[in-house]
Design a protein that fits this description.
This protein is of the alpha+beta class. The protein is rod-shaped, with a radius of gyration of 52 Å. About 25% of the residues are buried.
Length: about 675
């Protein structure tokens, strides 16, 4: 009996603490929006810590001249059918605007003016005049839907304008802004408090001081006539928030017979247990009250920090409530997009309408997929429409917020206006495209110019061959007929002959260089071993004169032009012999290595070499690293070699070290595409 009596009193006191913490939440906030209230109630976890409570709500006091504005504001929050009911005119209204959890049952009370019903009004006036919690008499809640109808009651606590004085009852009535309240269904309430009742004890709760059937509020074991009233019974009053209940406990016959022998011991033990239980409950209540105060302070701090951060940037901060499918955002939405700040959250569908039609479906699909994905962060670039119709580019980033069970309940994020960055990127892209087109046009023009020059060189060198041939013939005839006696005459004639010879070599080189590019040829099988034998035979005299040693490993057969390949290896071997170090016999090693459908050939010599910075320069036309008096040549030999190799689909590179020698590396395909080069 004592356990049940104490548990009811202690639990109802805990519910009063819940209302006090909710009033503290109002006092610690400048404004409390619907989403603020929902988030706050969720942090309380009512069903875990306060089982039996139907919800936590707020009823606002509305004067007649402000009624229309108030109703329109609530409708703008996404409830177009909202109305204060009953609708009859009166001096003031007290409409239910917040009630969480906002279930189907609780939604039936949305907009109801409890001040219009006498029993409820009596409790509300008592709370308003005293500033303390007030419990109503027994009522039937408007939440009842005809199924499992239960009797109920309501617990109220006033919310004042805390900037006004609250000394007298008149002060409190003038400062009243609304009530925080909780509705209770008595059967659910008792189940939440006691969980189950000991089968040996039946008890009833009567509303008020009279033990009368008309005042019967609750019975644990059926109607009272079903309980044996002849046995043991005890009556205990309990006061809850200024209102009296009467508890009547009745013992069943088998409880008396089984336990009357141990009554003294039971009483002693029960007293100790009840005392310990009461101490535990009081400690628990104190901790819960402290926890609620900490939660309220923490929530206010988080809200203040959020406001400071959002106002210090131009970013749009948004929050998507997944349960209600509504989206709220900060004041920067008005600054960036030009839309007036709405009174409450927008529906998700309304929010999507602000996305550019060209991006809307893509963004909606990705956001909805993100909710069920395992990615920690969301990031997407797309376009938003301003109120003026202008589109801006934004970078949207966000993440999910989960409840204690790991279920996503909200998605929060921020939007950054990247329109200027996008414009700069687009301008850079257009500039790059124009630059590329200009470079391509100039390249084509340069190639055309080079081709024209090479064609001219080919024609000119071909036409110059005949005059030079006649000049050399005339010099030879003059020398044979007149046999100059004077040394000066002989020197001049030799100088003229050498100059004509160099001119002929240059013409032949230019003609060969231009011919390599402009005269397509059919590819044939070429034995490179045979080519190197012919080259060494052609250069036998200079090889013998210099005491050179030329070693050639077996070379493969490839497809190409035998004439051009002979010219290629002739020039490379001749260069190795020509650019030898004074007093050092030339050594040239030619090796080959096959790899798949390609072959690599290296020519390594011990000549004068060259520096790394000259490795590319030596392949340019008419470039000489040494004077023509020291080393003969036209400056076209290696340029011609490179062109021959490239015409065969290969590459030619060189590495050298001054005073030590050089290595020329050729890489050829074994077969030519289409059978031509």
């Amino acid at each position: 009996v004592d356990n049940i009596h104490s548990a009811i009193g202690v639990r109802m006191t805990a519910y009063e603490q819940v209302l006090r913490s909710a009033v503290g939440f109002f006092y610690s906030s400048d404004t409390v929006t619907r989403s603020d209230w929902k988030a706050y109630v969720q942090t309380l976890r009512l069903q875990d810590y306060y089982p039996g409570i139907q919800g936590l709500g707020y009823t606002a006091r509305v004067l007649p001249e402000k009624k229309e504005t108030f109703v329109n504001k609530v409708r703008a929050e996404g409830f177009p059918g909202f109305a204060i009911w009953p609708a009859e005119p009166r001096e003031e209204y007290h409409a239910i605007v917040y009630l969480e959890p906002f279930t189907e049952r609780n939604e039936r009370a949305f907009g109801y003016d409890m001040f219009t019903e006498g029993t409820r009004r009596q409790a509300m006036q008592r709370a308003m005049d005293t500033g303390d919690p007030a419990l109503s008499q027994m009522v039937t809640l408007v939440q009842e839907n005809g199924k499992d109808v239960q009797k109920g009651c309501l617990l109220y606590l006033p919310v004042y304008n805390n900037k006004m004085g609250l000394v007298t009852e008149e002060d409190k009535r003038a400062a009243l802004e609304g009530f925080v309240y909780s509705p209770f269904r008595i059967n659910d309430l008792m189940l939440g408090i006691l969980d189950s009742v000991a089968p040996q004890v039946a008890f009833e709760i009567y509303d008020g001081d009279n033990v009368d059937t008309a005042c019967l509020f609750y019975t644990s074991h059926g109607y009272p006539q079903q309980v044996d009233k002849a046995g043991l019974s005890v009556t205990r009053p309990v006061t809850v928030a200024g209102h009296n209940w009467t508890l009547v406990f009745r013992a069943r016959p088998h409880f008396v017979s089984a336990n009357e022998v141990n009554v003294p011991n039971v009483i002693a033990i029960a007293g100790v247990v009840v005392s310990l239980l009461l101490l535990y409950i009081l400690v628990k209540i104190n901790r819960l009250g402290s926890r609620n105060r900490v939660l309220a302070e923490r929530y206010k701090a988080e809200k203040d920090r959020y406001e400071i951060v959002s106002l210090s940037t131009n970013d749009i901060i948004w929050e998507w409530d997944l349960a209600e499918n509504r989206v709220s955002s900060n004041k920067n939405t008005e600054t960036v997009l030009g839309y007036p700040q709405p009174a409450g959250p927008l529906s998700y569908a309304e929010w999507l309408q602000r996305i550019h039609p060209g991006d809307r479906d893509r963004v909606a699909q990705k956001m909805e997929a993100f909710v069920t994905a395992e990615d920690p962060f969301w990031s997407e670039e797309y376009r938003l429409l301003k109120k003026s119709g202008e589109a801006i580019d934004i970078l949207d980033r966000g993440s999910l917020v989960y409840d204690a069970d790991g279920i996503p309940v909200r998605m929060v994020g921020s939007m950054i206006n990247i329109t200027e960055r996008k414009r700069a990127e687009e301008a850079q892209r257009r500039f790059s495209e124009e630059l590329e087109k200009t470079v391509q046009a100039r390249t084509v023009e340069l190639q055309r110019s080079n081709e024209d020059l090479e064609r001219f060189a080919h024609v000119a060198s071909h036409d110059l061959k005949e005059p030079v041939r006649k000049m050399r013939t005339a010099i030879d005839l003059f020398r044979s007929r007149y046999s100059p006696k004077q040394d000066d005459d002989k020197f001049l004639l030799d100088l003229l002959a050498r100059s004509a010879g160099r001119l002929n070599e240059m013409i032949e080189g230019i003609l060969a260089y231009s011919t390599v590019k402009y005269e397509p040829q059919s590819a044939e099988r070429v034995d490179l071993d045979g080519v190197l034998r012919d080259v060494c035979d052609d250069l036998e005299l200079i090889i013998t004169e210099k005491g050179a040693m030329v070693s050639v490993q077996p070379l493969p057969v490839i497809e190409g032009s035998s004439v051009l390949l002979h010219q290629l290896f002739y020039n490379l071997v001749n260069n190795a012999l020509k650019f030898s170090r004074p007093g050092v016999a030339p050594v040239l090693a030619i090796t080959a290595q096959e790899s798949g459908d390609r072959v690599e050939i290296k020519l390594a010599d011990n000549g004068i070499g060259f520096g790394p910075e000259e490795a590319e320069k030596i392949f340019q036309s008419f470039v000489r690293l040494h004077s023509k008096d020291k080393y003969e040549g036209t400056g076209l030999g290696l340029a011609l070699c490179k062109r021959i190799v490239e015409r065969h689909g290969g590459t030619l590179t060189a590495k050298g070290t001054r005073g030590e020698g050089a290595v020329f590396t050729l890489n050829f395909p074994k077969k030519q595409q289409d059978g031509t080069i």
